[in-house]
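Appendix B. Extra example for self-study. Work through it before the problem class; the solution is given directly after the inputs so you can check yourself.
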Amino acid sequence: MSTDVATATAASARQPAVPHWAKLVVIWGLLITAPFWLPLVGGYTALAGRVLVFGLAAMGLNLLLGFTGVLSFGHAAYFGLGAYGAGLTLRYLVHSTPLAMIAGTLLGGLAGTLFGLLIVRRRGVYFAMCTIAFGQLWYYLAYSWNDFTGGFDGLRDFHREPIGFGPLTLDITAGPQFYYFLLAVFAIAVGLLGLLVRSPFGHTLRAIRENERRARFLAIPVERQIWLSFSISCFVTALAGTLYALLNNFADPLALHYSLSGYFVVMCVMGGMRTFWGPLLGATVFVVLQDYISSMTVNWMSFVGTIFILVVLFFPRGLLGLRRQRGEK
Amino acid sequence: MLEVRNITKRFGNLVAVKDVSMSVKPGELRAIIGPNGAGKTTFFNMISGYFPPTRGSIEFNGKDVTQVPAHRRVGLGMGRTFQITEIFPELTVRENLLTAAEVAAGQTLNMLPGRAAAKLAGDVATEMMALVGLTSKADRLVGELAHGDQRTTEIGMALAQLPRLLLLDEPTAGMGDEETYAITALIRRLHRDSKYTIVLIEHDMRVVFHLADYITVLDQGALLVEGTPKEIAASEAVQTAYLGGTG
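Solution. Structure tokens for the complete assembly:
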């Protein structure tokens, strides 16, 4: 596209086609009412729960991928560590949902924070390869430590527990109640992420994504910022992992496997990684397709893969990126 | 304000800059010129802290900064632009300047939007956008702007960090006549009206003689002469160096 065209038409740029508040009303409206309208279109509440869990994981990854410009192919490690951390706590330590969530989030988040220190100077493919290798380490650990983790069969025999607030008890063992619990946790985490990307810290991350050399010359401590972004991103994904364990009352080694890391990246890219809500849309498309197609064929991934390729070819900036691009040009 | 004393830079066997000194007073606009390969860029990179000199010392505002790396010199009040435009293309003009101002205000760890210190940085960004004349393009993506506006954005980013000394590496590189005229007028305004101290490298002699208070001429890594534009224009040594001694 030539500079002339860009200059001539960009005057109307940055005037989003849909106002920001309207977008938020639609997103939260759909999420809050999901248990009511989903059955009408052939869905079920647990499916919406999966969308929230994977959406949160992908939005956590996207802080690093879309907003810092650093590719991790190992975020399943922190997701899985979150899931196992929560599951193991519930099974062996205490019957408390909040403690299980805290333990899982800390396990995954701290593992990522420490690992991040080691790889923060690597860039591009080298960074991505390191994240895969570190992720697989945990997969094989969970896979082979039969007695403790349940090995290939996964970790069973734990259940999410009702949460007590003094005399009040919040029973989240049933599906719809648990969906709203998920939505509340999702809302808090996403709200904090939203503040983060609009903060001065968030601005430095985008500066690093856009031009690392320039960022360095502005006196942005590039390595420290990437490390913090990686760390926060791991905490969010680990939190999503704990919700995954609670949703299924189950944690399996595949939650740690690098193929899941790849799915997270696919969700971000498909939905639009330069947009805040893109990964949630990507996760929605991914989870719904997986659910729908895997009921017909075991080769569901080849269909999802085809759709992914079509999206990348025709919407290079992702599904939400397209709308923004049209608004701009 | 800036005291460069007898600095030398060696790369292996090559002596790129040889025993050069320069003294810049507050409010001065100093141009560094010289034929290709004269060591201008190497000299400039030592001033901005891109690499330290092999020998010699650099003092800035009475403080020895010889070994201080570039990103820490920013905090001391040095702002620079680059020969090749270095911007954040997919951010708006405002976001480019705002990020620079926030970093200078020490906000890199502030994870909440809208705090007082961050608002102050926003005011600085707004002020500097007005100063360089980009207010009407505040919400445009910098990557979509014309080359001249991108260079102007870069100067705006440097200004948003509130420098006491502005280092400009070939500010008119790659520009047509009209853009060169506009950026020259901007630099002149920054110098005359806003009283910035400026050191620049420039190839375009019209720009240099129009702007500079003093000119430092380098040739083959060494200081050839130093003086006002009038003195430089009259200097035989300079004419010989530029014409390669054959004319």
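Self-check: Chain B has two domains: 1-77+164-247, 86-162. If your reasoning did not lead you there, revisit section 3.
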